[in-house]
Every structure is written in structure tokens, then in C-alpha cells.
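Before our next group meeting I need something from you. Please put the record directly below this note.
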Amino acid sequence: MEKQHHEAIAYDFVHPGHKLNTQWPVLDLISERIANEMGVALAERLQIPIRGSAQVTTRSKYSQCVLALGKTGTVHEISLLPLSGEAWFCMDISVVSSIVNSYFGGTAELVPIEEARKLSRTELRVLQHITEATVRAITTGWSMISNVNTSIVGGVDVERLANVAQEQIMVTSIMTMSVGDVDLPCQVVYPYEMLSPISSQLQKEKTAPVKQDEQFGKAMQRELLNCELEIRGVLAESHITLGKLLELKPGDFIALRDVQTVSFLTQNMPLFDAHVGNSKGKVSASVSRWHLPVSS
């Protein structure tokens, strides 16, 4: 029998799919909150309509993450104490220019920029507004699981990042600032080592215990007890043929059986059984058994 020879298959042990196969749905929620807060803050500061939204976070190698920034990207390192390391806030120069044009009444059209250039004083001032809004938004977004002290460490040159050889995994949250119909991308990038110590918190959302409002509960109980119910009970039933019904004349009597217990209902739901009798010349009912569900 002839033996078959198989070639060895290369296996990338540092690929993010192997190193990080755990999903972090809470991080997606945090990113959505950050994007929303950024949109609100920038709309108030710049007085232009901006809406923020976020996509699902992605993982990539450090080299791939830096390459995706391109030559015209701006990067600010952000500290999120007590989390170790620094995250990045990344935005292309073209996005800054688009927001500046919209700020001065122009269109927010996103025009690609081929080569890196120095930002004008106005662009630097708008970029500062954006980074300040990002810091506040990150603090608010992360408050759902942890109180972080967020601050800008400083700007970083993309070329310098590209010259650093690292094998770590980067977790990228891509966000969009929408000005009218134009979507302006930006992103917050976390080193995997920063998030791994709180992996369990990022897998499951922490739900705070619901506080009961005693005052509201008492008011609701009081109003419910004042609600009026229409109750109905059949005191007696009898059978008669259609022929005898047609023969009835004013003053005729229909014999009814003597009923001692009657079931009372509201909207076809049984409430209680009662003994029927006379009290002060009126038909009365004395409750004998309730049909209400028993609370556990």
C-alpha cells in the first residue's frame, strides 16, 4: 500500500484569531456610548449637527493596525487609569479638514489627502476640541463597568509607531461621526494587554440591582384600590321551551330553582363565591370563597 505524504501547514501562533477568541460584547456597548457622547459633545461645542455611532470592535496585529492608519493619520495616546498602558485615538487629517469646513458653514465632504502635512491653527484648535470631547466620552462610556481617569498623554507620529516592532494584538473600535449624509471615521485602539485583566467584565454586562421606589409603590397601591370593578353574578337560571316563551303574558311567573351559592365574576374572571340571602328586604351575598390567585 502506497504511503501518502502531506506537506506541513504553517500555523501563525500570534494571529489574533488564535490568541483572542473570546468575544467582548460589553466593549461594543462601551464603544457605542463613547460614540454617542462624542457626537453630543461636538455638536454642542462646534454648533453643527453631528451624530456618533460605533461598529463592532475588531482585532488585528500591531503592524496591521499601524498600516491601516496610513500616512495622513493623527494619533493621540490616551491614559485610562487604573488600566495599564495607553490607548490611541486616531483620526485622519481629511476628517479634521471636513469638520473645519462644516464648522465655517461649508460642506462636510470628505476629500482624501495624499501626503501628510502640518495642520493649520484652526485645524489644531478643532482637533483639540475633538480630543477633549473624546476624553470625556471615554470616561462616560467606561463608567458602565469601571471609573477610569482619562487623560491625553500626547500626540504620536504615525511614522514613529511604524518603526516600533511589536507582536501585540490591538483591539480597534471604529466609530463614525456623521455630519448630514457624510460619515467621518475615527477610532479608539486598545492594546490587548490593557483589556485582558478585565476580560470577565467585558464578557458580561454588570446589572445594578433595581431600587424600589416605596413612595411610588404606595401611591400605585392606593390608586389601584380606588379602581371600580363591575361584578356580575347569576342568581338563578331556568330552562323554558320556545313555545312556552311565546305563550307568556304579562303577570305570568317563571319558576326558578332555589340557589344558595352564586359565583361572581369581573370581565369573565371569577372573583369569589357567595351565599345568597335576604338582608333588610334586599337580596344580599355573603362571600364564602375567593378565586383570586395566591401570590408565592
Notes: DSSP finds ten helices and eleven strands in the chain. Confidence is low (pLDDT under 50) at residues 13-21. Residues 25-46 form the longest helix (22 residues).
